[in-house]
Amino acid sequence: MGIDAAVALLACPTCQQPLTREEGRLVCRRGHTFDIAKQGHVNLLGRAAPQNADTADMVAARARFLGAGHYEPIIDALVGRVRDARRVVEVGAGTGHYLAGVLDSQPRAVGLATDISPMACRRAAKAHPRIGAVVADTWAGLPVRSGMADVLLCCFAPRNPVEFARIISAGGLLLVVTPNEGHLAQARESLGLLGIQDDKLAKLNRGMAGAFEAVWSQRIRWTMNLDAAAVTDLVQMGPNAFHEHGAVSEQMSVDADVQLSVFRRPGM
């Protein structure tokens, strides 16, 4: 299915008209066209990806790390909050790992993965048969038709409350995963990795107030016993890849500590 699974959710980034599938491309009624890449994704960004977009090496590291199951407690928590969804969107989806996990629990749902990295979208397009993947910028406006998402996932990704409120249906859910202060503390301390923003959860709640109702919050903590290769992937799969850090030389026990915040779009 691929992009066919999600095309009904998509809007033209130029004129916001619905997109439909033609041979090898998506097209809107005003004639704007967007080629479907041979890897299965579609670039709806309309410009070159920024220099800080995830690289092929970063995406490969994330795929190895997530594929090894190190973050499965996050998927378990997401799945526990989703019921009878038909249309699930993940922004900043990266490899599409979290979205694929949710779709496995929702046999009637289709999924749309968006990310500003073309390399990430290549991987997300193949993460699940019911995922369509598009290159898009959450801050610039998502190429998604209004009110089309029953559930929106945002895991360690940029947030745009105005756009989220626009694309989530009345009564739909927004699931946000953010790191708590103690997340990856051992790795951050020993390797000199980037810190975590202060008061992150409070800022999230303030940002969503008005457009959403907070309905659930769950702290998720577990310990990962990582060999040196997994620690290297952990470092290289995110923003730390763009910064200087200590050398990885041995296995490490690392605590994960994240928050799942669930918001509901008023209505119904």
TrEMBL record:
Entry binding sites for S-adenosyl-L-methionine: Y71, T95, G96, H183
GO aspect biological process, one term: methylation
Positions with a binding annotation for Zn(2+): C12, C15, C28, H32
Example of a GO MF term: metal ion binding
Known EC number: 2.1.1.-
Keyword terms, alphabetized: Metal-binding, Methyltransferase, S-adenosyl-L-methionine, Transferase, Zinc
Location of the 23S rRNA (guanine(745)-N(1))-methyltransferase N-terminal domain: 11-45
Any single Pfam family the record assigns to this protein: Zn_ribbon_RlmA
Keyword presence, Methyltransferase: yes
InterPro entries, alphabetized: RlmA_N, rRNA_m1G-MeTrfase_A_prd, SAM-dependent_MTases_sf
Protein name: Ribosomal RNA large subunit methyltransferase A
